[in-house]
Amino acid sequence: MSGPSADRSWGDRERDTMVTGLGFCLPGEEGPVFSAADVWDLASNGRSGLKHHGVYYGSVDLSDEAFAQRLPELPGIFSRHYTNAHRFGLVSLVEACADAELSIRDGDLTDAAVLAGRGGIDANVASYLEILNADAGSTTPHQAMELFVRGQQALTPSDVALVQGALMRSTGPCFTVSCGCASSAVQIGNARRMIADGDIDLAVVTGVDVFSVDVIQNVQRLLHGAQRTYDSIRVDGMPELLPSFDRVMRPYDRRADCVNHGEGSVTLVLESRDRAQRRGAHTYGQVLSHGMTRDGLSNPLASDESGASLVSAIRKCLGDRWDISQIPYIHGGSDGDVVVTAFEANAAKQLYGDAVGDLLMTSQEACFGHNGAPAGALGVALTLLMIEQDEVCPTANCEEPADNICFDPVPGVHTRQVELDYALTCNYQIGGVKSAILLGSSDAD
Predict the structure, then answer these.
(1) In CA terms, which of 60, 125, 218, 383 is 20 to 30 Å from 4?
(2) How far apart are CA 128 and CA 382, in angstroms?
């Protein structure tokens, strides 16, 4: 490895993008996990924070005390109208800034870009319905003002960026991307690009989502009815209609047949190398490149199982500067959906050829649940921790790898020792979007 002491120029890439802070608000075994150490402990041992609510779901269960401890000075006119998405996003932000040794109170982040990724609207529904159903004739002026504040904060996908930017008193760029489960991955790519181009020196990127357990449970009931109708006309060779939510998800396992959702938030602090070095910051590693494609299908719910689009995204990400032979590990986006596993396996074969059996590719979705927008930021955080530790986390709940798995999914509950200078992390959105981010150690070229 080489050890550059200043930002380097690589064609149009003017400056390196370093990750200096990691913060979480995710499901854990006994309660929420907030720190990199907590997340690593769960993921590196293949454990799960999923709980059974009639369906398996990753609940954060953030207490009022835990929230107030981290954010004691928020004005009540705003905080009492926060949704769980606001609360989770603010907590992960505070944790990431503390990890990066940046003080929100002292104004260390006033010039930061505030970039959020949101995939779902479940957290906004209650606020929307309350305002929609409010009776103007019987609502008092005070109640009307409270509803107005609640609506302004909660009836937009930019809700979390809105309250984060206010907390930091940020004067920098502030915007939200909604691209399903690739949302925060896309924002990490945007932050890297703005830092590389010299537009900003500091960014906080947050992915946050909340799924309603009531909605998932009712979907499960609806699907049971649909499955019974389908089974009455089913003949040999026809697959099951739709997966169930009431079994445990098993990415890359031969028994994989379902997806378990989760909720929560992940925040990353990204800085230019110069800025990080000036203040003596610890760096987890660097975001080197981002590539994104779409399958080009007319069906908005389909994915091309050939893997061609994922191959294209990864090759765009690597460009002419890196070669796939330098990448011994890929953090996959498999959530237990056999379609996702199929296109990942096919892409791996096309990329690695005869060497695909040596590729390590794992997923930790079964640790925290398939959580939508946070998935990209979580994938980057976990992968950087693996690079830092020179260990690859196992695929949680994978015990018997499926026959079509051509790579090593690291089954079981133990990490695999491997020296990592580079790694890829991938995320996907329903409708064929494929996102790939190339990460490197702090001194990788």
Answers:
(1) 383
(2) 35
